[in-house]
Specification:
With 272 residues, this protein is α/β, with parallel strands linked by helices. The chain has 9 helices and 8 strands.
């Protein structure tokens, strides 16, 4: 057990510095000023998903007016944004609001225990260091960052080609696609962004899918209303108001589209 005097103590500890972890930190600073807290991030950089995945074409699979924070307007022209733009947006957000001073990188939380008598969480970090807190917020997402899920394919050990999981994609994998025959298994959001880029370089590409994914073709550039009032950025309060209006319009529109697809699937399919 760690020496009680060597234990760091905070009121709140946030684990994970992706979108949810950053937003949690902002809300703490705004709603509970003076609260002591820190953010523990296992990786050497913030961003979560947008730092982990490096495959070509990675981008948001929903518009940035709803994916971005309500307290920091998305100001780029692209409504569907590339991964590096999203990561830069997150970096700007933590810097502007002083959240970057609360982040601790390369902090691997290996064990967590709770003391009911003291109402205290104790975290073991990097196998030895202990941190205690009253409230623990786990904002580390649902990915296994060490190894992405890979189905068991009989005979895969006999395949003499290159097998790549998008989560472990490297620039060498991008180069290996040049002039090669490529098969992509799956047709979800990752495939939607990956396939068009790989298809440009591969000699042939086949995508295998079990369940069809229906995709609506929409412009990548920003909302016309928001774009027309981009000058409001220079007036923070007015700019935030315009951004909020567009954000809620997008949220309501998405809710209506989802309800339509669920209630009238055949009609929705024809319209796509």
């Amino acid at each position: 057990m760690a020496d009680e005097h060597s234990v760091e103590r905070f009121e709140v500890v946030i684990v994970g510095c992706g979108i949810s972890g950053i937003d949690a930190a902002y809300q703490l600073q705004k709603r509970c000023p003076g609260t002591s807290f820190c953010i523990l991030e296992r990786r050497s950089s913030l961003g979560g998903t947008w730092d982990l995945f490096q495959f070509p074409g990675i981008r948001s699979d929903s518009d940035m007016y709803t994916l971005a924070f309500p307290w920091k307007p998305w100001q780029h022209d692209d409504e569907i944004a590339d991964g590096y733009l999203i990561k830069q947006y997150l970096q700007d957000a933590v810097t502007e609001h002083g959240i970057d001073k609360k982040i601790r990188y390369n902090q691997d939380v290996s064990r967590v225990s709770y003391d009911s008598e003291k109402s205290t969480w104790t975290l073991t970090v990097n196998g030895k260091k202990s941190i205690c807190c009253q409230f623990l917020l786990l904002c580390c997402g649902y990915y296994d960052y060490q190894e992405g899920y890979t189905p068991s394919f009989p005979g895969i050990d006999q395949f003499q080609g290159r097998v790549v999981h998008p989560q472990a994609w490297t620039p060498q994998d991008t180069n290996a696609c040049n002039g090669s025959r490529v098969v992509v298994i799956g047709s979800g959001a990752t495939a939607v962004t990956l396939v068009p880029h790989v298809a440009k370089e591969a000699s042939s590409l086949i995508m295998l899918q079990r369940t069809p994914t229906f995709v609506v073709n929409l412009p990548k550039s920003g909302h016309w209303f928001y774009g027309s009032f981009k000058w409001t950025y220079k007036i923070p309060i007015l700019g935030l108001l315009v951004y909020t209006l567009v954000r809620w319009w997008k949220i309501i529109l998405s809710a209506v589209q989802i309800a339509f697809c669920r209630q009238c699937p055949k009609l929705a399919k024809k319209s796509m």
